[in-house]
Amino acid sequence: MPSTLALSLPAKGAPFTPTTIQRRPLRENDVRIDIRFCGVCHTDLHFGHDDWGGTLFPLVPGHEITGVVSEVGEAVTEFEVGDRVGVGCMVNSCGECAPCASGEEQYCTEGFVKTYSAVDHDGTVTAGGYSQSIVVVDRFVLRIPDELELAGAAPLLCAGVTVYSPLRHWHAGPGMKVGVLGMGGLGHLGVKIAAAMGAEVTLLGRSAEKKNDALSFGAARFVNTRESAELAAFAGHFDLIVNTVPARLDQDAYLGLLGLGGTLVNVGAPGDPVASYNVFSLLGARRSIAGSSIGGIGETQDMLDFCAKHQITSEIEVISADRVPEAWENLSGARYRYVIDIATLGTP
Ligand code: NAP
Ligand code: ZN
């Protein structure tokens, strides 16, 4: 079986170890990809720390993958060697349930197969993009538009689509007031994408030093969530708030910022339950509290094409593979996404 170099966590709490892993021989619908860049998503840390339980070790994280096709199976018609492609959080799904049939594979009733730490339909355990190559069935491979460079496009594959999907679902656009809560990898793309959709965007964040960046990404304003008086001034203001924070939050405080019929959609996914809410925070203005998971494959391609049209890529700091442990220690220091240059992994 073809082998490839990877960065692996042998067990919870163990340090990253360069290792060799096997990728399957190509099946007729498979695409082999030489990985060039992989984003470091906060979800990688949740898995590495086993925050959600059930992580399969050894773990090769990484689901913000861009690269170049190096080989295709004989039945592949959509991709050829040399194509610039990406892979996000999913590498398989049942393909038959109602969500799969409607292009929402992320809500597959059998559970989609995650790019890492999952058992694929053939019984093998998936391994992600902190590695030099990956083999993925063609219907889970995305095309990277020519306008987007591969490093800055990598975080779009998870962070980008995770904010794009709820913004589309709740119809972000002109006349709509959107709050983005937390400005890390997801949040900064949320600001850029919601602004490009034409919404009035407010960054709700605890880090005042990010204010000018938020404005440059298209936010109309920055509101400091540590300042209760600043928050209070926006009571009832928003139609939609996208919460990207990976920690427990006072949901009532943010529900109170929504106007009539507004929605607080949680995409941040802390391990412990998000704080409970008071039902009166909802019924006084017919508000909703919701969640959203990444996006479907078709929607991910739409998002990439949208980003190409609006010249949106992630703000990135490219790091070498040996700096991954340091990046994990200091993820909130990223402006705004660490992206691993996979060429620095070495030679097999
Ligand atoms: P990130 O880059 O670490 O950014 C998170 C941001 O949230 C920080 O930059 C900070 O922004 C704010 N924040 C962090 N800790 C906080 C705290 N204790 N209290 C208040 N604010 C805090 O993380 P990310 O990669 O964007 O991921 C964010 C979350 O989304 C993670 O839980 C991840 O697992 C989840 N996620 C979910 C999906 C999905 O499908 N739903 C997909 C991908 C990721 P400020 O400094 O601006 O406050
Ligand atoms: Zn992710």
Structure in words:
- Helix content is 22%, strand content 26%.
- It has helices spanning 42-48, 98-101, 150-153, 159-169, 185-196, 211-216, 228-232, 251-255, 280-283, 297-309, 324-329, and strands at 3-8, 17-22, 30-39, 65-72, 84-87, 90-92, 113-114, 133-137, 142-143, 177-181, 200-205, 221-224, 238-243, 258-266, 288-291, 316-319, 337-341.
- The strands form 4 sheets. Strands 3, 4, 5, 8, 9, 16 and 17 form a 7-stranded mixed β-sheet that branches. It has a 6-stranded parallel β-sheet with strand order 12-11-10-13-14-15.
- A hairpin with an 8-residue loop joins strand 1 (3-8) and strand 2 (17-22).
- Helix 4 (159-169) crosses helix 5 and helix 4 packs across helix 10 (297-309).
- The longest helix is centred in the C-terminal third of the chain and has 13 residues, at 297-309.
- It is globular.
- The model has no long low-confidence stretch (mean pLDDT 96).
- The chain binds NADP nicotinamide-adenine-dinucleotide phosphate and zinc ion.
- NADP nicotinamide-adenine-dinucleotide phosphate (NAP) is lined by residues 41-43, 46, 158-159, 162, 182-187, 205-207, 210, 244-247, 267-269, 292-294, 331-332.
Précis, in short:
The chain is built from eleven helices and 17 strands. The protein has 348 residues and is of the alpha/beta class.
Count up the domains: 2
Bound molecules: NADP nicotinamide-adenine-dinucleotide phosphate, zinc ion
Whole-Å distance between the termini?
14 Å
The Rg value, from CA coordinates, equals 20 Å
Helix content: 10-25%
- Indicate the proportion of strand residues: 25-35%
How many strand elements? 17
Low-confidence stretches: none
By helix and strand content, what is the structural category?
Answer: alpha/beta
Shape: globular
**CATH fold topology of the largest domain:** Quinone Oxidoreductase, Chain A, domain 1
Q: Residue-averaged pLDDT, rounded?
A: 96
Summed up, the helix count is 11
Report the CATH architecture of the largest domain: Alpha-Beta Complex
CATH class of the largest domain: Alpha Beta
Q: What would CATH call the homologous superfamily of the largest domain?
A: Medium-chain alcohol dehydrogenases, catalytic domain
How can the largest sheet be summarized? Answer: 7 strands, mixed
